[in-house]
Task: structure prediction
Amino acid sequence: MLNGRFLASRFAQLLRGMARNDNFILFLLENNCTSRVDTYNMVYKTSGIVLKRKNFGEADRVLTILTERFGKISAIAKGSRKIKAKLLGHLEPFTQVNFQFHEGRNFYIVTSADIVHNFENIHNDYQKTTRAFYLGELCDKFLESDEKNIEVYRLLSSALEYLEDNNVDLMLRFFELKIIEASGFKPALRECVHCRKILTAGSNFWDQSEGGIICSDCQKKFQHGKKISDGVIKLLRVIEEKDIENATKIKQDNKIEAETEEILDLYIKNILERELKSKRMMKQ
Result:
């Protein structure tokens, strides 16, 4: 067991947001730092969607859950891997669940979980499963822990409901643009991100570093930006304005959809400073 002063220092790091990652969660578990449930007997209820999980010890799981009330949280499901565990089968990734938690010192402890929607079609279809993992990883990487964002929760819920019965590529572009917007990185699509002039059809460029479209004059001046077609600009604007049902009904040729995917992929990589593992998995 580690001494109290050292643990207090590591807890302070967590509170400052300097150590919110899976390795630190496992560090806390390995050193028996989940005792707040014994001291603070608070009970919390919320709906949530499991984004990912990790096995821990002989029978436990560590979950990352996007909740309606508390945002993205880390939770421990103790004994959930046992054959007769009451939580067995209730904590699969991309399952929508009504949760009950105790709040531990550093993460929540799951005390009950009732399935609202298990998205059976997604789990039984490999392509849909890989797409669901991509949606989940986007949520995980864009959101800070314990930061409420009901807009993203509803976005993921509606996307999974749509994916359960449909499998349209444009749904992914819709989700990408909407989570970018909800996270505070809304791109400029109607005026030049540099000079603020209203964009006109013709020669325009995408600048992922600045977060939007730049006109030809600014591209010549600053010498950066990737050519973007009028069709992609139009598609991004339409997606921005519509809900998932109407956005996914838009008919586009494959070239426009491929270019739109490339533009959004560049922007996401620039924001997150990484390529998502699930994106590579979808391409395999």
